[in-house]
Each structure stands twice: as C-alpha cells, then as structure tokens.
Amino acid sequence: MRPRALPREYRSGRGRTAFAVITTALAAPGGLTPLWTDDSIPAWVKALVTGAVLGFAAWLITASARAATLVDHSGLQVRGFLGTRRLAWKDIQEIRVEVSAGAVFQENGAERLAYAYGPGGRRVQLMYVDDARVHLDSEIAFLRHTWHTLRGDGWEPVAGLADRIRRGEARRLALLAGLVPAIFCVFLLILGLIVDLFVDLPDGLETVLSPLILFGVIMPVLSVGAASLAYWRRRFVGQHQPFDTP
C-alpha cells in the first residue's frame, strides 16, 4: 500500500494471450473454408478477405498483449488498443470503480471496471484493472493511496467535476437499465413465434406479442421507465463513492 511498491503494472498475462492465439489458429480454418470452397468467388477476393480477417485477428491479439496500465512515481500510463494516455498524479481528479455496461452481454466478463478522471473530466479506463483479473477493491485502494500521497499539497478538485462524474455514471447506468426491457421484448417475440407453431394463441395475446406492439409500444414504455428509475435512484438516492477534497 506504499508508493515504494512502485512501479506496478497490470497486463493481460501470457496465458490469456496464448489462449487467444490457439483459439484463433483453430477457428480460422473452419471459418474461412466456406469462402475458399465457393468457386463463384474470385481468387483475389478470397485472398483479400482472408488477409483482412487474419490481419485483424493478429492486430487484436497483439494490441491485447501490449495493452496495460503502468503505475510509477510520475503517474499512470494507460496503453489502450488505439493509443496511450499519460496522467500525472497531480492532474488526476478521481480514481473510482464503475459498473461495466458490457457485463450484460458477457457471461464471464468483468462486472466492475476501474477508471481515472483527468482535469477536464475525461475518464480513462485503467486497462486490466477489473474484478475479472485482480482483487479490485485492494488494487483501487492501492492506487488511490498512491495518488493521495504523490499528487502534491497543491492539488485541488476542479469545481463542479464531482457532480459531472455522478451525472455521467447515472446516465450510463440508466442506458444499461433501458436495454433490459429491449432484450426481454426480443425474448417474448421469439417465445411467441415458437409457441404459435404448435398452438393457436388467443387474439389478445397474439396482438400483444406482435412486433408492432412489442417494439412500438411496450418496449419504449418499459425502457424509458426503467432508464428513468435507474437514473433517479443512482443520481439522488443511490450510494456514491466519496470524492476527494484537498
């Protein structure tokens, strides 16, 4: 928990990289076989598509292996897939944990992610600092302790930024809550189509399960209601992480 524990780094790990390489090597032949066995497709198109697919896979694996969060006495260096961000300790306004919107669509993905906020309020995801790879609460405590120690006596919070961060977090959670009814309506539509293959649905139920009613009436009403409720609860009655004061 002391700054002397620096430098510190968070990476994907060789095991995950090796798994990605093996998975790609096994999946690529099967995925590209239909392309290469179709005689109606010109050879140059096959070569172009194959090169693009393999090139993208190679870039994704390389970028994933290169991505990292590096911590030292000068600040944070975050290597993302598309670039690198550097934040000096004195420029960081907040380090906090937020819910991952992608967790809804990933069975084994991270549910909580770590972010740092710069002086302009822009948030930067701390790569591989999440509850799927590390003991997140301990690592966040370490990062915040290091930030408090090294940011200097002249550090001051940007006026109004804490409230902007709370509003942004509430909006993202509201969006996530609004997606749940949409997924539920898709499930109802599929269920109704399957049941309709075997039995005749009552006229009223068939009307309710029609795409027009499901996606034109029910889904918007439920999505707006769920999003509004989630925003209100998070913004006004939810428990917030404390913000720092000098």
Features:
54% helix, 246 residues, four-stranded antiparallel beta sheet
Describe the secondary structure blueprint for this structure:
Elements lengths: L7 E4 L2 H24 L5 H24 L1 E5 L2 E5 L4 E5 L5 E6 L12 E6 L5 E8 L5 H15 L10 H36 L6 H6 L2 H27 L9
Antiparallel strand pairs: 1-2, 2-3, 3-4, 5-6, 6-7
Description:
This protein is α+β, with helices and mostly antiparallel strands and 246 residues long. 54% of the residues lie in helices and 16% in strands. It contains six helices and seven strands. It has helices spanning 14-37, 43-66, 136-150, 161-196, 203-208, 211-237; strands at 8-11, 68-72, 75-79, 84-88, 94-99, 112-117, 123-130. The strands form two sheets. The chain has a four-stranded antiparallel beta sheet with strand order 1-2-3-4. Strand 6 and strand 7 (123-130) form a beta hairpin. It is flat and about 75 Å long. The two termini are 20 Å apart.
Count of extended strands: 7
Element pattern in H and E: EHHEEEEEEHHHH
- What would you report as the Rg, rounded to the nearest angstrom? 24 Å
| Total DSSP helices | 6
Stretches where pLDDT is under 50 for at least 5 consecutive residues are none
Task: Report the end-to-end length measured between terminal Cα atoms.
Answer: 20 Å
Return the average pLDDT rounded to an integer.
84
Sheet-strand content, in percent, reads 15-25%
Helix content: 40-55%
Strand order of the largest sheet: 1-2-3-4
| Structural class category | alpha+beta
Shape: flat
Largest sheet: 4 strands, antiparallel
